[in-house]
Amino acid sequence: MAAPADSNAAAVPAGLEPLRRPTREEAMEAVRTLIAWAGDDPRREGVIDTPKRVIDAYQDWFEGYRQDPAKELSRTFEDVQGYDDIVMLRDIEVESHCEHHMAPFLGKAYVAYMPTNRVVGISKLAKVVTIFARRLQNQETLTQQIANAINDSLRPAGVAVLVDAAHQCMTTRGLHHRHVSTITTQFTGVFKTDDGLRQRFLDFANRR
Question: Catalytic residue numbers?
Answer without folding.
Answer: 98-101, 139, 167, 169
